[in-house]
């Protein structure tokens, strides 16, 4: 189950001697056929200059599939992000869920927002919620390589219906391949028409189960606290069908949800454990920083000595605040943690001097067809439909042209984040990105092309597709 030094070297196409030397420099003496702890394997790979993509071979799912013994996997609770248009009730729903928490009332202490919380439902299952609603935070995390959300709850107001950010949220969830449960909110209002909302949503590919579709849809009122329990049970049901699993009996790995410098407590970070069990005294490498777990607590201030998969905990004992979306791993020695963090910091500094490049517009899927993902923005709705039809028709047997998101209105920072997360190209028609967005795109290495003439747009996309076919360009 654990990878040997030899296997790992072969996977990275490196000489075994070099890998052993690197391990020695990290303070680990090994022989060629020795099996490595997963964390050490991950770290040495990252130390040998593997970029995040390759390192992610050893990320949670893959570790579970490849190295982890399936017999050791146990069900874990789902992690949920709430999305939806502004004012449709995301914050109200988060509050309603929080107050429905069966276990929440027991602690009596002040509730602090730590970026994520876990609730115990009526039927005894746990659900974890990320406390920053909206697709911006979701996609920002994903653009840093962190996929933490298992299920998206899309809140749609039963009086307003589908709005621009509803569509954005649908597309961001779709691009991340995360299933969507719809909460049709504000059903207490006289003008509420939940059936009409279902109709509208089905135009965007979300079809309720009782219409033969795949999406669970529930009518709720966040304000009047109606059907919140059923919503939670549906999330649990969905999680059960997804067979979410992790191995709790190994060293922990996961993601930083939030971090800050607290004037009283010093650097604190909310960590979401994705696999393994995090314990007091564990040595951590977190992005470019490190630490030792001195204390763990939840949003009610309840202390933990151990945190199992899908548990968010605020951790004390970190050297300096990491960044949201950073990965953390537990390593055996404090000195390793420090050295690795130090060398990553140096690398990050060097890398920040060079612009990053997302030139890989292609995504070679298993079937050997290539995808060209495009985010299409236009000044008016009318040109949008015509353009996206023409573009989608350009798909060939070799290249699938995918419009992963389209919308009328300016190019936004959230579009750039989606482009980074999905390796997409942004195409604008009859509009210009503002300076801030342009700067962000440049920094992230995202290509934005804007056009005034449809013919030019089509010709350029065609050229990009041909470029994908020809490896020399
Ligand atoms: P967000 O922008 O999506 O986070 O929306 P909020 O949670 O801030 O809600 C926006 C407004 O809608 C607030 O005034 C809420 O009180 C109200 N609201 C939220 N949920 C409901 C509901 O179920 N019924 C009614 N009548 N009002 C609601």
Automatic annotation (TrEMBL):
GO CC annotations, alphabetized: cytosol
Swiss-Prot/TrEMBL keywords: Cytoplasm, GTP-binding, Initiation factor, Nucleotide-binding, Protein biosynthesis
Residues reported in the UniProt entry to bind GTP: 84-91, 131-135, 185-188
GO MF annotation terms: GTP binding; GTPase activity; translation initiation factor activity
Compartmental location: Cytoplasm
The keyword Transmembrane helix belongs to this UniProt entry's keyword annotation: no
Positions of the Tr-type G domain: 75-245
Annotated function: One of the essential components for the initiation of protein synthesis. Protects formylmethionyl-tRNA from spontaneous hydrolysis and promotes its binding to the 30S ribosomal subunits. Also involved in the hydrolysis of GTP during the formation of the 70S ribosomal complex.
Family under the similarity heading: Belongs to the TRAFAC class translation factor GTPase superfamily. Classic translation factor GTPase family. IF-2 subfamily.
Protein name: Translation initiation factor IF-2
Source organism per UniProt: Endomicrobium proavitum
Source lineage: Bacteria, Pseudomonadati, Elusimicrobiota, Endomicrobiia, Endomicrobiales
């Amino acid at each position: 189950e654990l990878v040997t030094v030899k296997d790992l070297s072969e996977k990275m196409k490196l000489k075994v001697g070099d890998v052993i030397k690197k391990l020695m420099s990290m303070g680990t003496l090994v022989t060629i056929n020795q099996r490595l702890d997963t964390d050490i394997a991950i770290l040495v790979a990252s130390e040998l200059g593997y970029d995040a993509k390759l390192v992610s071979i050893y990320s949670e799912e893959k570790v579970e599939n490849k190295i982890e013994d399936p017999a050791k996997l146990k069900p874990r609770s789902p992690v949920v992000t709430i999305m939806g248009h502004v004012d449709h009730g995301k914050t109200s729903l988060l509050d309603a869920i929080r107050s429905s928490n069966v276990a929440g009332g027991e602690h009596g202490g002040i509730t602090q927002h730590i970026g994520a919380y876990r609730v115990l439902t009526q039927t005894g299952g746990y659900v974890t919620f990320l406390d920053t609603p909206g697709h911006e935070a979701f996609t920002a995390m994903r653009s840093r390589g962190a996929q933490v959300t298992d299920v998206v709850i899309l809140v749609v107001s039963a009086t307003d219906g589908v709005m621009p950010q509803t569509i954005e949220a649908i597309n961001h969830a779709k691009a991340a391949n995360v299933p969507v449960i719809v909460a049709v909110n504000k059903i207490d209002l006289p003008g509420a028409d939940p059936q009409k909302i279902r109709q509208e949503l089905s135009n965007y590919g979300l079809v309720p189960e009782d219409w033969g579709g795949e999406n669970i849809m529930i009518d709720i009122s966040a304000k009047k606290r109606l059907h919140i329990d059923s919503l939670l049970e549906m999330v649990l049901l969905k999680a059960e069908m997804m067979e979410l699993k992790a191995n709790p009996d190994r060293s922990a790995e996961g993601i930083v949800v939030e971090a800050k410098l607290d004037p009283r407590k010093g650097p604190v970070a909310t960590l979401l454990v994705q696999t393994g069990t995090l314990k007091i005294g564990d040595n951590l490498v977190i992005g470019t920083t490190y630490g030792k777990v001195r204390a763990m607590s939840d949003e009610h201030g309840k202390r933990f000595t151990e945190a199992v998969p899908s548990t968010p905990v605020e951790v004390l004992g970190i050297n300096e605040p990491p960044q949201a979306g950073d990965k953390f791993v537990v390593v055996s020695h404090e000195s390793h943690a420090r050295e690795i963090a130090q060398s990553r910091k140096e690398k990050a500094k060097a890398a920040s001097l060079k612009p990053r490049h997302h030139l890989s517009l292609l995504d070679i899927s298993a079937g050997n067809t290539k995808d060209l993902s495009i985010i299409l923005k236009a000044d008016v709705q009318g040109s949008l439909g015509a353009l996206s039809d023409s573009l989608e028709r350009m798909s060939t047997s070799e290249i699938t042209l995918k419009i992963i998101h389209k919308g009328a209105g300016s190019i936004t920072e959230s579009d750039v984040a989606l482009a980074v997360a999905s390796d997409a190209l942004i195409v604008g028609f009859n509009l210009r990105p503002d300076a801030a967005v342009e700067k962000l795109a440049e920094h992230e290495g995202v290509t934005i092309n804007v056009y005034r003439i449809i013919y030019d747009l089509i010709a350029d996309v065609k050229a990009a597709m041909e470029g994908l076919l020809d490896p020399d360009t």
